[in-house]
Amino acid sequence: xxxxxxxxxxxxxxxxxxxxxxxxxxxxxxxxxxxxxxxxxxxxxxxxxxxxxxxxxxxxxxxxxxxxxxxxxxxxxxxxxxxxxxxxxxxxxxxxxxxxxxxxxxxxxxxxxxxxxxxxxxxxxxxxxxxxxxxxxxxxxxxxxxxxxxxxxxxxxxxxxxxxxxxxxxxxxxxxxxxxxxxxxxxxxxxxxxxxxxxxxxxxxxxxxxxxxxxxxxxxxxxxxxxxxxxxxxxxxxxxxxxxxxxxxxxxxxxxxxxxxxxxxxxxxxxxxxxxxxxxxxxxxxxxxxxxxxxxxxxxxxxxxxxxxxxxxxxxxxxxxxxxxxxxxxxxxxxxxxxxxxxxxxxxxxxxxxxxxxxxxxxxxxxxxxxxxxxxxxxxxxxxxxxxxxxxxxxxxxxxxxxxxxxxxxxxxxx
Length: 415
Hints:
- By secondary structure, the protein is of the alpha+beta class.
- It is built from 16 helices and 16 strands.
- It has a 5-stranded mixed sheet. Strands 1-3-2 form a 3-stranded antiparallel sheet.
- A hairpin with a 5-residue loop joins strand 2 and strand 3 (97-100).
- It is globular, with a radius of gyration of 23 Å.
């Protein structure tokens, strides 16, 4: 089966893009109001929300729901993800992410892998067993705690601000191993508790064979992506090795995955093997306007973003300022089925201004439609509790002066 005979503006297959975006929840009418049901629906569709602490504009896990649903009350999402009584916890299904508590058993194979890698004889964890044993007793007696609430001689930083104390290091190892689970967050800090004190007994008692868990995770990745290659599906939950191919073949044999060819998806001059999930929607057109988090599943696998959208994307948070090309926290701009630009935003909460640090259009794409982008920026600012949008002095990018002109008082949107 061939997908993408209709090519888009960049020459990449438009149908494949629409399948992928529809699977991610784009192209649907916005709900009249956004409550916990709609927010749960986004998390269930994506399977997880990746967490990142950078708050120059907004923390990443809030952005996928905003991109798909529009403005919502962030305290509702906090109740689902930060409250220990909520349906979600944290683990490392992709990077650090929120996921359903009931999905925790699907990652026991990963917990064992981590224990073998970081907990064996001679490891830091093994050498510091006295600290680990003390922590177990402390959590058993006091219940879930933020690392800073634990009083111990080893609980002091060993380096600059990002240095972990031995207590924090032990907690993170126990978290990787599944011995400790996250009971929500306090001031964005993880609250660690023994797994038996955090997760329901029905979750703790459930066992899933490794092969079954990996096949299920790859199936979910295929549902969330709609269409993709083995590397695409494997990256969604960071699964490696020959078991990926085995599980995908089983899903194909079961009829869950349908082999397809996507024009332009090639490796070494040969078509890449790809599949579409049997239930994937194939929209003839798709209308969407959104700013994407750097950690949105649409773009988090950079090779897929390049192959699917012709969008070369690298986050520049850790790049020294003089060497940045697009900006500290540059967000892809999605217009319908294409990524047509990127914009670096900062929420200046003291001045109550959403500042545009830089803004760029993508090569070979048509101009970014300002009549759609400007209302989205105004909506974004209001969602952030800010009063106006401004282009920062010295803002870079070919789109920045166009936005500055449009935002000038007395002109169009800026009036």
